[in-house]
Design a protein that fits this description.
With 140 residues, the protein is α/β, with parallel strands linked by helices. It is 32% helix and 12% strand.
Length: 140
């Protein structure tokens, strides 16, 4: 969606918007939230999302999961020294349950895959990854 790449498109992500989303997460049948498109791990987006995901964790603890999709590669781009690593990245990763990483690659498109569109994308268990110090895949 090219319009999602424009930082001036859409509505501002305000405290009121956050409050509305938190309210929508309250029912028990809502299991969590997914952060995706444009690009949640773009450095400016990380800085805006960190306080929000912390609010989710503070309000719901582990009763709601937080997933994020990114075109960046976790152990290349999002680690210290990586092109998308910021002062917010490590704490943001600590608040995610699952990170689906890697760009969608049309030549690797596979509609039979769960939760991703191409075979190069990985479903990463973030708590296990951070504990072990290496990428731990989920649902493989």
């Amino acid at each position: 969606n090219p319009e999602t790449w424009d930082f001036n498109y859409g509505n501002p992500f305000t405290t009121e918007v956050e409050d509305k989303i938190l309210k929508m997460l309250e029912p028990a049948y809502i299991k969590g939230i997914t952060l995706l498109g444009g690009e949640p791990m773009e450095p400016n987006n990380q800085r805006a999302l960190l306080p929000f995901v912390k609010r989710i964790k503070e309000k719901f603890g582990d009763t709601k999961t937080i997933w994020s999709f990114t075109g960046f590669i976790y152990d290349k781009d999002l680690i210290a020294g990586g092109r998308a690593h910021t002062e917010a990245t490590d704490e943001l990763m600590q608040n995610l349950d699952v990170l689906v990483d890697g760009p969608f690659v049309k030549k690797k498109k596979n509609l039979s895959l769960k939760f991703r569109g191409s075979s190069n994308q990985r479903i990463i268990d973030m708590p296990a990854t951070l504990e072990k110090g290496e990428v731990v895949l989920k649902m493989e």
